[in-house]
Predict the 3D structure of the following.
Amino acid sequence: MRKQAFSYVLGLVLVLGCFATFVSAQDSQEGGKPGNRGSFVFQQYDASEIQARARDAMQAAARKAALDGSRPVFHFRPQSQWMNDVCGAFFHQGWHHVFYQYNPWADTWGKGVGWGHARSRDLVHWEWLPPALLPDRDNGSTMDASGSAAFDANGQPVIFFAKTPAKGAREQWAAVPEDGDFLRWRRVDLGLAPGKNGVPADVKASWADMFAFTAGGQTFATFKSANGLICKAQRPDLLAWKAVGWVDGLGGECPNLFPLTGRYGLILSTLPISYRVGEFDPEKISFRFAGGEARVLDYGVAHLEKGENGARGLYGTTVFTDGKGRSILLGWLSGFKPGRGWNGCMALPRILTLVGDEMIQTPIPELQELRGKASSLNSLTLNGESKIVEGVRGDNCEIMAQFRPGTAKSFGLRIHGQGRTDGVVVSCNPAGINSAGLSIPYSLSPDRPLKLHVFFDRTVMELFVDDGRCVSTRVVYPNAENLQVEVFATDGMVELTALQVWEIKPIW
């Protein structure tokens, strides 16, 4: 009995020791913070051969990624390697689950891209989970392209993706969970392929981005590169589908069609990303647009060069309902410098609401948990001058400023390194706003205050103007390890009525 007890205790110590070593290794790669929520849940997971190889590749790259001081610290991102579209999300039993295009093998896009997976209690702090989907020769896919997530009639999640065979057109597939923590997923053929179940035989081989949505108690789906094709689920488990019609105006990647405040919103990943508002008729399979032409959702496109490093701003989005009943927009940010062991992150979660036909984007208030030391400026008048906000430190911050336009030719905010004159500028003038070199049409009035809300995270700047009526998300490189925030006015006067700056605590 003593020998058995000793063996049991020794075994338990060894297991706990190995687990502690694993978590410690993860923490060291993310700055050595104790209690880091970024460690993988592989300790609860019997990894397959491909999952084990992916884990090793991710952890090897993480050592390189951890050395990059430009990597965001309060935006969600994988531990390492390449991330693109956010391709599904849902809330279930206290957890927000998010899926994203992920290449565990390299910090670039290419064959082998599957679906990464993470979860969060509050949409602020994240825990990495094993990749939900990894293509390989055993499942006949070279890439598992973007899609979405939905609940079946029993309240169980289903994820939809585009299987990419070595030859021929893509096929739309699903995956269903095999465990209660949603760590393992089983692939299911939906029968949605060219020439099957009403899908045209000549549909483009690149069709993908299946986005499931509900209307009239039924579940439908949109696709990219399919001429507006709409399919409808034929069974309560959402594992059998049929083409039922077409909707004009779905040109663009990741067509998110979703209920919003008693109506429907349509977001398309165009350049720049755009949206429309209207009504979807589930009987006639039609979408009646309101408000004229499509509007810009986010002014973030600076350039789009060949290859994966073009700056698209916000792109590759998904929309889901969170645990508080809010419509939450998630999306991918691109434009980071290559070769650093990581590339890509997620924009801060945004609440979507409607004011008439205008889609308003508001950063989730849970982000306020990250606020640290605050600095401020009292109400003052700037007349052709600038003023630095004293006390700001670090390389990330949140800024809330309100101006009353006057005679100044331009006014706004500068974010730069201490002792430097370059950096990132948000400049406002009567013709519009310039966000880090990108012009945005936006009318200013001397009779109306202008609000600027900025989140700056090393190389990511998210700008919300007038409580989310206009948004710009940019990837920038200001060379600012020690930030200074400055307000300015040129050639005239502007009134700064309020300004606060918070240092932001990292989530990793």
